[in-house]
Design a protein that fits this description.
Blueprint: E1 6-11, H1 15-26, E2 31-35, H2 41-46, H3 48-69, H4 81-105, E3 109-119, E4 122-127, E5 132-142, E6 146-148, E7 159-160, H5 162-165, E8 174-178, H6 182-193, E9 197-201, H7 213-225, E10 229-231, E11 236-241, E12 246-250, E13 255-258, E14 260-263, E15 267-269, H8 276-279, E16 302-304, H9 315-330, E17 344-346, E18 352-356, H10 359-364, E19 369-376, H11 379-384, E20 390-397, E21 403-409, H12 413-425, H13 430-434
Parallel strand pairs: 1-2, 1-5, 2-3, 5-16, 7-14, 8-9, 8-14, 9-10
Antiparallel strand pairs: 3-4, 4-5, 6-15, 11-12, 12-13, 17-18, 18-21, 19-20, 20-21
Helix pairs in contact: 1-9, 3-4, 3-6
The structure holds NADPH dihydro-nicotinamide-adenine-dinucleotide phosphate.
Length: about 450
């Protein structure tokens, strides 16, 4: 008989927590999963998946205009937002059920309720019906993710967050989105595609801080061309709300009246109510759980993965961390994930995807870098009349001749960069790219034909 009720209690049944639990259970660990909301988590229920469905939906307006360029006659083309949200929610219900089944079929227990760490080996669970349970466990994994966070200013309570934006009963006629990170630019594309008068307000000069400068400027140009109004170099000083609209005062003094304001000013680790401070788990400045290489906190039996550790806040990273944890702790496989060359995509319109270093980052690291660039109008757009252009870049370390970065803005960027990421991860040289035969005609072939 073990001295503990469980070998592992996982708090949070998102993508990372679910993978941790399933793989641990597959090694024979007696595992309990605790989830206060619905199993599935942010990515599946309030993030990546519903967002991408709405990105697809919003792109049809441009695709119809492209089709007209190709001499299709299209009459009476209009969307039905309410039906779309119902369909999207039905799909999320299906995915939620899949998550429940994944957890249960892998042999884990699943309890619906809010978990709290009450000791190095103890978790209490407040069930949604008010009942409180307590269990002991050899190890505890915290995989609770993050939540949106707004800066402090008068009227910030009138902003909706991305969870709410994904579930609106009705589309506004106009919207202002505050911020210019992943979420802000993705939702700007969604609302604009549905014909909402869309304003993007942010404090930097260009959107998407940290990305390649040319890509950032390219996105700004494209967003403006598609009809999004940009208010860069601005913060929101105040929002006043009346029955009909929200009046926004910007730091420039300009005022803006819109139906709705969405805040997308970053996400923070969702640690409230977890009892971590009391148990003595060390936290960083943003409230992130500090972990070592083993994803272990300063309390040896407590671990954390994913957004709550605020390292690379991407679903596939949380999944990889959870899987590696299970392999190490219960599978006897000592392996660690690499945080280098993690590809990512922004489903803005046009979309962006990147892997590795950009030129500025390489220079900062004193790498003798050279960049190769290709900017063009995609074949489709020669007839569609769409003004959108594609930009692709490679960064090469001239000393080793290794390709150390690939960056793209344009259709299918995520699909293309995923393949390039394998080559970069494998240490491909520029000459390997050059000797690869292109697929013609495609945009992707530009990555193997860049000469200057
Ligand atoms: P980001 O960190 O990407 O962007 C935050 C934005 O808010 C930036 O524009 C930032 O400005 C601005 N901001 C932050 N604080 C303030 C402030 N006090 N006043 C005004 N503006 C402020 O956060 P997101 O919420 O967009 O996304 C969170 C994370 O979720 C991302 O980093 C990403 O890891 C993940 N994600 C990934 C997606 C994907 O893979 N496609 C999609 C969506 C989210 P500034 O740049 O000037 O600092």
């Amino acid at each position: 008989m073990s001295e503990f009720d469980y070998d592992l209690i996982v708090i949070g049944a998102g993508s990372g927590g679910t993978r941790t639990a399933r793989i641990s259970a597959s090694y024979g660990a007696k595992t309990l999963v605790v989830e206060g909301d619905r199993a599935g988590g942010t990515c599946v229920l309030r993030g990546c998946v519903p967002k991408k469905l709405l990105v697809y939906a919003s792109q049809f307006s441009e695709q119809v205009s492209d089709a007209e360029g190709f001499c299709w006659q299209i009459n009476n083309f209009k969307s039905n937002w309410t039906d779309l949200i119902k369909k999207k929610n039905k799909e999320l219900d299906r995915l939620h059920e899949i998550y429940v089944n994944l957890i249960k079929n892998s042999g884990c227990d699943l309890i619906s309720g809010w978990g709290k760490v009450i000791g190095p080996n103890k978790v209490s669970i407040k069930k949604n019906d008010g009942e409180v349970l307590e269990f002991s466990s050899k190890k505890i994994m915290i995989a609770v993710g993050g939540e949106s966070s707004f800066p402090d200013f008068n009227g910030n309570q009138f902003m909706i967050n991305s969870d709410q934006a994904l579930d609106l009963n009705k589309l506004p006629k106009s919207i202002a989105i505050y911020g210019s990170g992943y979420i802000a630019v993705e939702f700007a594309g969604i609302f604009n595609g549905f014909g909402v008068d869309t304003h993007l307000i942010f404090r930097a000069n260009d959107a998407l801080r940290g990305f390649d400068t040319d890509l950032r400027q390219h996105l700004m140009t494209s967003m403006k061309q598609k009809g999004i109004t940009i208010h860069n170099n601005n913060t929101i000083s105040e929002i006043e709300k009346n029955k009909e609209s929200c009046k926004i005062t910007l730091s420039s003094g300009q005022q803006l009246s819109v139906d709705m304001v969405m805040g997308a000013t970053g996400r923070v680790p969702k640690i409230s109510g977890l009892g971590l401070k009391k148990v003595g788990v060390q936290l960083g400045q943003r409230g992130e759980i500090l972990v070592n290489k083993l994803n272990q906190t300063n309390i040896k039996s407590i671990y954390a993965i994913g957004d709550v550790t605020d390292k690379i806040t991407l679903t596939p990273v949380a999944i990889a961390e959870g899987h590696a944890f299970a392999d190490r702790e219960f599978g006897g496989i000592k392996r660690f994930i690499s945080y280098e060359n993690v590809p990512s995509a922004v489903f803005s319109q046009p979309s962006i995807a990147v892997v590795g270093l950009n030129y500025e980052e390489a220079k900062k690291q004193n790498i003798n870098a050279r960049e190769y660039k290709s900017e063009f109008r995609a074949l489709k757009n020669t007839i569609s009349g769409n003004l959108e252009r594609t930009l692709m870049k490679l960064v090469v370390d001239q000393d080793t001749q290794k390709v150390i970065g690939a960056h793209m803005i344009g259709p299918d960027a995520a699909e293309i960069i995923q393949g390039v990421a394998i080559a970069i991860k494998a240490g491909a040289l520029k000459s390997d790219f050059d000797s690869t035969i292109g697929i013609h005609p495609s945009a992707a072939e530009e990555f193997v034909t860049m000469r200057s």
